[in-house]
Design goal:
By secondary structure, this protein is an alpha/beta fold. The chain has 2 domains: 8-45 and 103-149 and 385-537, FAD/NAD(P)-binding domain; 158-379, no CATH class. The protein contains 16 helices and 20 strands. It has helices at 19-31, 48-51, 72-77, 87-100, 190-202, 226-233, 236-245, 264-277, 293-310, 314-321, 338-341, 388-391, 403-406, 440-460, 470-485, 516-528, and strands spanning 9-15, 36-39, 107-108, 113-119, 124-129, 134-142, 164-167, 182-186, 205-210, 217-218, 334-335, 347-351, 357-361, 364-367, 371-373, 376-379, 394-396, 425-427, 465-468, 534-537. Bound molecules: NADP nicotinamide-adenine-dinucleotide phosphate. NADP nicotinamide-adenine-dinucleotide phosphate is lined by residues 58-60, 147, 153, 186-192, 194, 209, 211-212, 331, 352, 357, 380-383, 436, 494, 496, 501.
Length: 538
């Protein structure tokens, strides 16, 4: 009788079947011919887009740039319907990719990884699932996403709440019925800003609890015209070239002009045009918005002026425009009628900066000033970003060193890809890489291709393992810090880029802010020179 026991030993294990895990699987299995298994906690592919099904969930990258570019055929055959892809459409795209490349047969769904341990004697990783099974592999690649560990603040009383509560990143698959309900939404980051107008349109009343006011630029979402779709299909190579050469991996070029090259009137006209165009491109109006605080102030004032123009009630407008950080120093949201939603009679804005949420009561939310009766609470309170998904798993490297210990003062690694003491562990879009500061598929393709080439080279050279030296890690951490310091990004002290949204998390600027194009050339140079700073062993 044939042995029906599932295989437990592989060349490579990949954790996660989102954008990064799918492409990593394809590269290692079909290009290098390795025996690969993907372990995925969800019951389907999609990662972020499998879990984030909240109302209004849509990507802020423009659809023609929010896809893989490694395959011209795949790029040309897929057609997006709107300027920004909605969550269900992105999920359809990733399912299409999984089917087109026959990826599902190498993915085990409903399998959450509990921990991973490196065994020096066998040079292999033992990965344990929450079901208690153990699988082993020479290479371990985390494709767990940067924003996948939900942050639900530890408000006292939550367990006594008599209504229903949800975190946007763990949204029920069959949706939530808001009709006739009093809804409270906590959080005004990109997620809260997307969800607010949609929930307001469905609920009896929406109360938005704002701790930090935020900028937002209109998305101007719309169906794509046949002409635009044709243009995209005909320009695969050019779009790929632009996305790979810009600092943020988006399909537009940052204007090569300073805020100070133009008169105040010209600047106003430029900002008006950028506002009319909408989207993340607003940042590209001038080259110095993220490095010169006074330059940034001009954009900030323009955007605050727009809030005051749109929002009718002056007190609400002031609260929304009372923004404490430079424009785009936090991830800049884009929206569909966010500010105008506060003109609806069924929407209230509550300031929880000056009167914080004290507790959740059985019937609602109590702040230092008042109590708000609610039927549903939506937490759009973000994620334990970047390090959270990695540290949630118990990863143990050489001589019992855990990743939690190695990173107790903040993440340390080389190129955002590898950690000393953890041989053959690769972290796709890990801290210390451009990741969240970049259009994610561009960052993901670059990491996956670098890892694939690194493993191919290792095998071609007859070597068994690779890991960075401590000195190379120190050097990279310094470069990550320097890159951040040369921008205004660390000036947003409450940002999740710094881990400031999670109590007790070390405050370290996590992503690499030197730009995707520069980062790519650094990685390419390391590979071309034979991996200096890395120990490659037999
Ligand atoms: P976020 O940016 O971290 O925002 C969380 C919000 O919750 C903030 O307003 C935060 O206030 C608030 N909050 C957290 N704890 C709180 C507390 N104890 N009391 C009151 N308010 C609290 O999270 P997010 O909006 O989910 O976005 C995370 C990232 O996901 C984005 O920056 C983006 O990179 C990505 N994203 C992308 C898209 C897209 O492409 N369309 C959409 C959504 C999200 P403070 O600011 O004061 O901490």
């Amino acid at each position: 009788m044939p042995d029906m026991t599932p295989a437990r030993t592989f060349d490579a294990l990949i954790i996660g079947a989102g954008f990064s895990g799918l492409y990593q699987l394809l590269c290692l299995r079909d290009r290098l011919g390795l025996n690969v298994q993907v372990l995925e906690a969800g019951d389907g592919v999609g990662g972020t887009w499998y879990w984030n099904r909240y109302p209004g969930a849509r990507c802020d990258s423009e659809s023609h740039s929010y896809n893989y570019t490694f395959s011209k055929e795949l790029f040309e055959e897929w057609e997006w319907s709107e300027r920004y892809p909605e969550q269900p459409e992105i999920l359809r795209y990733l399912n299409h990719v999984a089917d087109r490349f026959d990826l599902r047969r190498s993915i085990r769904f409903g399998t959450r990884v509990a921990g991973a341990r490196h065994d020096e004697a066998t040079n292999s990783w033992s990965v344990t699932t929450e079901d208690g099974e153990t699988l082993t592999a020479q290479f371990l690649i985390t494709a767990v996403g940067c924003l996948s560990t939900a942050n639900v603040p530890a408000f006292p009383g939550l367990s006594d709440f008599q209504g229903r509560w949800y975190h946007t990143g763990q949204w029920p698959h069959d949706g939530v019925d808001f009709e006739g309900k009093r809804v409270g939404l906590v959080g005004t980051g990109s997620t809260g800003i997307q969800a607010t107008p949609v929930i307001a349109a469905a609920a009896a009343h929406l109360t938005v609890f704002q701790r930090t006011a935020n900028y937002s630029v209109p998305a101007h979402n719309a169906p794509l015209t046949p002409e635009f779709k044709h243009w995209v299909r005909s320009n695969h190579a050019e779009l790929r070239r632009i996305m790979q050469s810009t600092p943020n991996g988006h399909p537009f070029v940052i204007e090569d002009r300073s805020v100070w090259d133009v008169t105040a009137d010209q600047r106003q006209a430029i900002y008006e045009a950028a506002w009319a165009k909408g989207g993340l491109q607003f940042r590209a109006a001038f080259r110095d918005l993220l490095i010169d605080k006074e330059a940034n102030d001009t954009a900030a004032e323009f955007l605050k002026g727009k809030i005051r123009e749109i929002v009718e009630d002056p007190a609400t407008a002031e609260l929304l425009a009372d923004i404490d950080h430079p424009y785009a120093a936090k991830r800049p949201p884009i929206d569909s009628d966010y500010f105008a939603t506060f003109n609806r009679p069924n929407v209230t804005l509550v300031d929880v900066r000056n009167a914080p949420i004290e507790r959740i009561t059985p019937s609602g939310i109590r702040t230092a000033k008042a109590e708000y009766p609610l039927d549903i609470i939506v937490f759009a309170t973000g994620f334990d970003a970047m390090t959270g998904p990695l540290l949630k798993m118990h990863i143990e490297g050489r001589v019992g060193l855990t990743l939690a210990k190695a990173w107790e003062a903040g993440p340390r690694n080389c190129l955002g890809l590898q950690v000393a003491g953890f041989p053959n562990l690769f972290t796709i879009t890990g801290p210390g890489s451009p990741s969240v500061l970049c259009n994610m598929p561009v960052a993901i393709e670059q990491h996956v291709e670098w890892i694939t080439a690194c493993i191919a080279r290792l095998r071609a050279d007859g070597l068994a393992s690779i890991e960075p030296t401590e000195a190379a890690m120190d050097d990279w951490v310094m470069q990550v810090n320097e890159a951040a310091r040369s921008t205004l990004l660390p000036q947003a002290r409450h940002s999740w880029y710094l881990g400031a949204n999670v109590p007790g998390k070390p405050r370290v600027f996590m992503p690499y802010a030197g730009g995707m194009a520069r980062y790519r050339s650094i990685c390419d140079e390391v590979a071309a020179k034979g991996y200096p700073g890395f120990m490659r062993c037999t």
